[in-house]
Amino acid sequence: MAKKPTKKPVKKAKRAAKAPKPIALYTWATPNGHKISIMLEELGVPYEAHPVDINKGEQFAPAFLKISPNNRIPAIVDPQGPGGRPISVFESGAILQYLGRKYGRFYPKDERARVQVDEWLFWQVGGLGPMAGQANHFRNYAVEDLPYPKKRYTDEVHRLLGVMNRRLATRKFLAGTYSIADMACWSWVLSASKYTDLTEFSHVAAWKDRVGVRKAVQRGRAVAAELRKPITDADRKVLFGQRAR
Ligand SMILES: N[C@@H](CCC(=O)N[C@@H](CS)C(=O)NCC(=O)O)C(=O)O
Hints:
Helix content is 55%, strand content 7%. The protein has 245 residues and is an alpha+beta fold. Mean pLDDT is 93; it is low at 1-7.
């Protein structure tokens, strides 16, 4: 005989109905995408990864452009944004700061400590990321062999790694304690280590390993990794030579 329903399951059902919707992460398995999947894994909050195949042009889909008008990943939609209403955020630095503020982790409240995180976060989004991105482009993707830009961007990455090495000589993490600044830089250093010998930058090498052993970092880096394939000539047409539309 079926048991009379008790109040308990009803309460449970009500709670389940109120369970927060996961954050939607629009991403691709690239260093800029990794920053946010790493942060979400570190936070341990529910999220759903929505791969945006940038090789196939999905970053130009009108629905995606509504949340990321720069046609770049990553972007997030948080259904429980400020005031309990949804919010979308694009630009990896802005997303990291938003998540850091929202959950009060990896982004200190103390102004002096926060300034240090911001300095190294902006150093990454305005320096290491773009320079390493260009180095990568001219080393691995340009059809022609162009020694000048190859050397220019490889040298600039080398200079930036020197700056980072000096910073890390006296502290374990860029802003002292592990923060969104480290999450922003890690995947880019990993990429640079493929063409720069890190034995010259021993503090950076030790930091790279220190961050890389974190389980959340490994899980974040694995997000959508299986979807990324070597680029084809058709992909090149989508990715390179973009002009205003
Ligand atoms: N400043 C942006 C850069 C993002 C970015 O460059 N994303 C690349 C992947 S790593 C992208 O979406 N590329 C698509 C394209 O080139 O059309 C950020 O930090 O979020």
